[in-house]
UniProtKB/TrEMBL annotation:
This is Histone acetyltransferase. It is an enzyme of class 2 (transferase). GO terms for molecular function: histone H4K16 acetyltransferase activity. The gene is Cni-mys-2. The active site is at E417. Residues 1-106, 531-589 are annotated as: Disordered. One of its GO terms (cellular component) is MSL complex. It comes from Caenorhabditis nigoni. Its main location: nucleus.
């Protein structure tokens, strides 16, 4: 049997040599010159007559090699193939699949997002506002050489706005926090988004009418929806949101506190996307940490540049004039804009007075908050801000008491500038309730007017009515059948049960800090009453009706007297021999 196999191999090799085949041609990749139509096996194919050969016969058949009568090498079966050729074939055949591109969220669409806070991790519905490559941690410029360096580790991040939270909670997140495949409930028509804790407390629904929506916004101090505003206000609100939708300053270090910013603030371009370092005494700022350290060693100020008008215990209030201390007040406005959404006063501070509240110690006066008011305005407060590390300590209501005390000494009933922010509305409502509850205790069982309460408390009538309307206590009689009531006046019935209900639900809670009026060292140069009288006198002089002699064209004033006939020689006029005057051409000096 083995002899037959040898003869078969020899016959094959001889046939291939007769046809002009060259030994090892296939191995070298050279095709034979002549082709008689016979199908040649490929390199990776097994010859048909070697299919059933055993391992021993196959090795013997290939033993001739290229040296034996020019015959080509026989194909070796896979079972006995060399190890190196098997690895090479495996590497050539194995192709790694390309990774599929990861899906990205679309802008201005709602997704379920993981909100990570120090206390917990919760799912919130958010809107993707912007995406860009940026460092995950805000960059700190240690010295001047770091300013020109590019960020080495950039990551695709997304800026999101949470629907049930205020804009102050907007933040940058990574792609892993966005759940692309989780469905989101669509927003229904006429729906107002109410926080979960308030909805559970009041048993409220999200879907409401416009009138109920306004009452809920007023009662729960929610941000008003654009659909409830007039067209002009809604357009301005949309433009404001588009212009300030992304925070440009991640955080700021002032004094011993590093605070995450809440909103956009128009700091210069070189400060954007960097941590800001600000001096707590002169409010000079820089994004360079080394410059901030050197400035603190050379800064000579240890208190705000103004007059101290109030001091009690470790609290002091300084009055700073925006006209004389323009740079300090501009920096103060930029600082407060980081924590206030609606603020338009940045650089035009000439007509404003700033009252800065500070905590004092042996090192100096450390700024806590401030309020500003416009000179000669009916508003006793234009802007109020208590910085986040010092909130919920009673400082806001202390400044509110001071603003009403200053307007009282000036002789007018003041009111804060509208609209109020959500936190400002909470503070003012609490203060107004506290003042009104004291009057309720005095006049319980009587019906009083809004004007009467305004004179007794020093609060403006619109502020009193807006406060009482949340409990539906104010009423305006428009019916002529009520002759005892003025149709243009608001009335409030102070029933004992109303007083009990307000006290039971902590309406009018006493502030933790009460202003000591005897410690206020301030008096106006001119009261508002005297100022108004002077203004009216000036208007009367300017608008006085001229007499009959003044109504005609007045004669030219004589400049010289020559003693002749006619007697007067005046500029622009000549006299003839008859003494009659005639206008001549103007004289040129």
């Amino acid at each position: 049997m083995s002899g037959k196999r040898r003869r078969l191999n020899t016959q094959r090799s001889s046939e291939s040599s007769e046809k002009g085949g060259v030994g090892g041609a296939k191995e070298k990749g050279v095709e034979p010159q002549e082709d008689n139509g016979e199908k040649r096996p490929k390199l990776d194919e097994k010859p048909e007559n070697l299919t059933n050969l055993g391992a021993q016969g196959a090795l013997e058949a290939g033993s001739g090699g290229p040296t034996s009568s020019g015959a080509p090498e026989s194909v070796v079966p896979e079972s006995v193939a060399p190890e190196s050729s098997t690895k090479q074939e495996t590497e050539e055949v194995t192709i790694e699949p390309k990774p599929e591109p990861q899906a990205l969220p679309e802008l201005n669409k709602r997704y379920m997002v993981e909100k990570i806070s120090p206390e917990k991790i919760e799912n919130q519905v958010a809107v993707i506002l912007h995406m860009e490559m940026r460092p995950q941690v805000p960059r700190v410029l240690l010295n001047d050489d770091d300013e020109g360096k590019e960020d080495e580790q950039l990551q695709l991040m997304f800026y999101v706005h949470y629907e049930q939270l205020d804009r102050r909670n907007d933040e940058w997140i990574v792609l892993e926090q966005i759940k692309l495949n989780e469905p989101v409930k669509p927003i229904a028509e006429n729906e107002i988004i109410i926080p979960e804790e308030l909805r559970q407390e009041g048993g409220l629904n999200n879907i409401t009418t416009r009138s109920v929506r306004r009452q809920l916004e007023e009662h729960f101090h929610l941000q008003p929806n654009n659909s409830t505003m007039d067209a002009t206000t809604a357009r301005l609100e949309r433009e404001h949101e588009e212009r300030t939708k992304i925070k440009n300053i991640p955080r700021i270090t002032i004094g011993a506190y590093t605070i995450n910013s809440w909103y956009y603030s128009p700091f210069p371009k070189f400060c954007e996307n960097h941590e800001i370092f600000m001096c707590e005494y002169c409010l000079a700022y820089t994004p360079h940490k080394s410059r901030a350290k050197s400035h603190l060693q050379t800064c000579k100020l240890r208190q705000p540049p103004g007059n101290e008008i109030y001091r009690k215990d470790n609290l002091s209030v300084y009055e700073v004039d925006g006209h004389t201390q323009k740079l300090y007040c501009q920096c103060l406005c930029l600082l407060s804009k980081l924590f206030m959404d609606h603020k338009t006063l940045y650089f035009d501070v000439d007509d404003f007075m700033f009252y800065v509240l500070c905590e004092t110690d042996s090192k100096g006066a450390h700024i806590v908050g401030y309020f500003s008011r416009e000179v000669e305005s009916l508003n006793n407060l234009a802007c109020i801000m208590i910085f986040p590390p010092f909130q919920k300590n009673g400082y806001g209501k202390l400044l509110i008491q001071l603003s009403y005390e200053l307007s009282k000494r000036e002789g007018y009933i003041g009111t804060p500038e509208k609209p109020l922010s959500d936190l400002g509305k909470v503070s003012y409502r609490s203060y107004w309730w506290w003042v009104l509850i004291k009057q309720f205790k005095t006049h319980v069982g009587h019906t009083v007017t809004g004007t009467f309460l305004s004179h007794e408390t020093g609060l403006a009538v619109p502020d009193i009515i807006s406060t009482l309307s949340t409990m539906r206590l104010g009423k305006k009689y428009k019916d002529i059948a009520e002759p005892d009531f003025d149709p243009n006046e608001w009335y409030c019935r102070l029933h004992p049960k109303i007083l009990e209900h307000c006290l039971e639900h902590d309406y009018g809670k006493k502030p933790s800090l009460i202003l000591d009026k005897s410690k206020v060292r301030w008096a106006p140069a001119v009261t508002r009453y005297e100022m108004e009288r002077r203004r009216q006198k000036e208007q009367k002089k300017a608008g006085r009706r001229p007499s009959k002699s003044q109504a005609n064209t007045p004669l030219a004033t004589p400049t010289s007297f020559d003693g002749g006939f006619g007697g007067f020689r005046e500029r622009g006029y000549t006299t003839d021999s008859a003494g009659t005057s005639s206008q001549a051409s103007p004289l040129i000096d």
